[in-house]
Amino acid sequence: MIPLVDLTIDKKLRDKITKEITQVVDSKKYILGAKLESFEKKFAKFIGVKYAIGVGNGTDALRLSLRALGIGRGDKVLTVSLTSPFTAIAVVEEGAIPVFCDIDEATWTIDVADARKRIDRKTRAIIPVHLFGNPCDMSPILKFAKENHLKVIEDACQAHGAKYQGKMVGSLGAAAAFSFYPTKNLGAFGDAGIVTTNNSKLAKMIKCLRHGGQTKRFWHSYIGINSRLDEIQAAILGQKLKVLEVENKKRVKIAKKYKSNLSRLPIVFQKKYGRAEPVFHLLAARIRLRNKLIKFLKKNNIAADIYYPHAITEQPAFRKFVSDELPVTEMLTKELTALPIYPRLSYQNLDFIIRKIKDFFNVK
To answer: Could you tell me which residues carry N6-(pyridoxal phosphate)lysine (predicted)?
Structure first.
């Protein structure tokens, strides 16, 4: 079976990671040590920001960003419904109210024109989601936020290394959240996340809040949470960061081959804005016959899946936050299909997948 995602790593990288883990074990320092400090500095440099603060996961990265920015009970936060529900969970857990906006039909990212219709005096922030590694159109988002005094927190959990107008996503808002869940372009061997920012006061507060709100040992000046990126995961991520750009380039090549070979079929791929450079965390496409196609591919030992089968606003946990229909979002949830993409996908297997998709549509 050709998997949707393959987390296999080559022996050379595996050996380096094993050596790093052994160093952590020998150091007997497992929390808030030298490996984390080193990785935070390297990731901040990679993104092009002054600060990176390692945390437990991507959800906590969003939560801590909201809390450090003073956004909480009763405040409204604009975001989208076509994403992982954990984006909305972070907002709700801080006592804030998610306000769901529709998305652009071509790029599947937040529609700023729709967002403008949904603000009121309680709106305090906007969380644009760089869905599947495709950057949002950040210029109008930042302009809209400035005009309405909104904080911008980028959800870059699927966009490690993606660029917008020459700048890395994660460097464009007040703060950004990244997830290092194992399936991400930069994945840990468990849960992990990070917040990036250029604001020194914000970085200091997030560092404090991730450690329970302690300003010194056993002294809590704030109510924080327990969410620290541990030394072993930091050591692993430090090694994997070294190969991220190479692996992202492979993803881009694979995506281009899919698109060029399937352009004549009734398949619509995600579009990008102008000078945006996606990194294809997932390769999703609009396919009306997706259930039949997924079944056909499975019979041919090819995995495909639905991302996302349900909008956040369709799910019981979030119904009380739904105020309006989201026609583009609802349409896309009925069509989006994820095809295999990962750096180790061989061109032989890629050609086989493309050939089988063509067979399904009776195209040579």
So the answer is: 184
